[in-house]
Amino acid sequence: MKLVTWNINSVRIRLEHVKKLVQDHNPDVICFQETKVRDEQFPLEDLQGLGYPHTHFRGEKSYNGVAILSKIPFEGTDGLSWCEREDKRHVSVVLEGGVELNNFYIPAGGDEPDAEKNPKFAHKLQFLDEMTVWSGDRYAEDKKRIMVGDFNIAPLETDVWDHKKLKNIITHTAIEIDRLDKLQASGQWVDAMRMHILPDEKCFTWWSYRARDWRASNKGRRLDHVWVTPNLKDGVKACEVLLDLRGEEKPSDHAPVLVEIAL
To answer: For 152, phi and psi rounded to 5 degrees?
Structure first.
């Protein structure tokens, strides 16, 4: 299975970019975050016309929104709410063969890494805590699961362009990394990307729109992730960050991540 996760930053605005993704890479499953569209306005026909008859999406106007598009039949569609809010930040399906796929958009957290002063950061930490409980409660050795999405955390020093300059900046603070480590441990999740892009290599999936030439400056962060349960680890065959799509006209600030997994 060729699986893509991508913070699309408005699926309607970037339909042409999706077409290019499909034309160039032909993924079997695509997981979007930040679709930014109500369900009734989701471009269902356009996306199904690209060869994805199986769809599951939850959206809202202008913010958040997640979707799963698949050539592979699925069932067991779900979508949970977190932190007693109705934000559309999670969808899940069970792919043919019994593999559960979860797609998350974790809150960004605002600008100040202080939960007492910054409600957005407090929300982010609560979201991660709730995910950790959920993940631990659902863990079972015989269950095959994949979790993808924009986690809005760059945990490794090589996940950011400059560890010293960013260690007190939200997405790379010690408190966020600690929460993410606890989430990963709760389900014994394996970081599939870092199986093929080794941990000592720089790896970024997001570059600020503020950079005039994002390729030249390369001041990026790895905010997008693909995790698998240990029983799928040996099936992870390849991983690539699709940089060309970040270079399209009026792109998302995230590049898609493509992972090949033998199920």
So the answer is: 60, 30
